[in-house]
Amino acid sequence: MKKIILLLVATVMVFSVLAACANETPDTPTDIPAGEVPLADAPVTDTPADNGDKHLIIAHSQDPRALPPNDMMFTQTILNRTGFTVDWISIPNEGAGERTQLMLASRDLPCVFLGLLGRDDIMRYKEQDMFVPVQDLIDNYMPLLSYVLDQRPNFREMMIAPDGQIWGFPYIEEMWGLILNQGTLAINHVWLEELGIAMPTTLEEFGNALRAFRDYDPGGVGNVIPLSFAGRYGSTGLGRWANGNDFGNFMGLFGQPSPGDLLMLDDNGQIFFTGTTEAFRDMYRFFHEWYAEGLIDQEIFNNGYAEFSAKLRDGVVGAAINFALPDRMPQDMLDNYTTMPNLTSAQGRWGTRQNLSEMHRPVTFVITTACCNPANAAIFADAFYDPQTSVEANWGPLDYVYVLDENGQMVWGELQDGLDTFDDMRARHTLGGRQPLAILNHFYGTVVEYPQNAQIILDAHRDQGFFDYHFYTPYIPPLWFTVEEANRIAVLQVQIYENTVDPWRRGWIVDGGVDEQWEDFLAALEANGLPEFLEIMQTAFDRLGR
Prior knowledge:
This protein has helices at residues 2-20, 73-82, 96-105, 119-125, 135-141, 143-151, 153-159, 189-195, 203-216, 278-293, 305-313, 331-334, 374-383, 387-395, 422-429, 452-464, 466-469, 483-511, 514-527, 530-542; strands spanning 55-62, 85-92, 112-114, 169-173, 184-188, 225-228, 263-265, 271-273, 317-322, 337-339, 359-367, 402-404, 410-412, 437-439.
């Protein structure tokens, strides 16, 4: 019954936009000259042109913890600042993808899709005259976003689709490269001290420490697991966070760094597949030996986060890999672990940069052809790119999640409404992630404090040496594909990663046999389309430099 009511409401809202349309085009705002106002000091765009329609219908996904949009502190604030009114089509997170596809297939379009579409959706439906290209809108009506893109021209480049158009406004969240390093290796320093072992700095020393944990049981727990992680979530593939839950970060120690999708750039800008290198083979031979010795969790590929966390909480794990260990165990146990320095070997060192971007979504705010006045929709979206507004949109409103300190910086306040976490507060009074916003590195310490929960992870990355050795490594950003390319990528990804790489490499850890099976593995990759896959990736990557 609720679904039927929601569908009726959405249909009424979409038809109502036609009645609300106005033909006037607003004047370009002139109060914020693009490129002249430092972004950290730029004011909110609170005076959009009054002529023209300032009413929007926006479809978005709704967190189950959230209040209705019109009751949220953030939405009330942004509407008051801009003078707009909005009818919200709130789609529950669960099933939002399916509902969005139904809306597209039936041309049941709102004015704006907020956080519901991706690159492939744009490419699949743009020829059906559903979306409004926004390059001119950015240049003429969006001084705040224009300033951001002037500071980050690589982000503008990544917003351009294969047809040369820009089809939406981005969600940018810089956090000093937090997501670009997905795995931290930490070791129980209490056990090291009890055994009189210095902090390992090489792969060999690390192995010896794990053997000591296994043999001497320094914690007296009786069932020591020297090294563990949540291997069930270590699947490889485009956009996967594999290295935080797998062996991938070790591969540099064997002579070839490798991100979670196994794709790297050579010195000539050519993409190659690290899964066919000798380093890949050598690493899996090596770690099978560790597995056979009992140095690696014998249930490694069955561990999800729940199982991994349970073992950490039981106090039986000597060393652990994860993106966010603070999320996996209580603070008193976390205090027993120290981030290890960047391990080295004769062939190289731990880690690499991942093929990700801190522009998380290039098309998070997409204007449709059902919008009566795209220029005013752009003006509304531009208000989100004010620094303070971006922070409020992303992490929570001022005077709720945040308060201003004596320097005018936004800092976390106190938990409210009987909620247990700031994430619950964020969910209650914002539209969640995927909004049009830009949080840039220079905001921290001026506009807002760095998020306290993320600071622990960032410090671990610094201690590990990620910023010293890997941050500036050339990488492959998330790419646009044509419809034909995307269709082939969807098939080839399954054949290459799910059907070949993951089952073979996991088998090599548990059962061994990488040397005997290596040529068959390479032949299987070729038969399953690796050459075609790399050709498509290279074509899409080369479009960035047009």
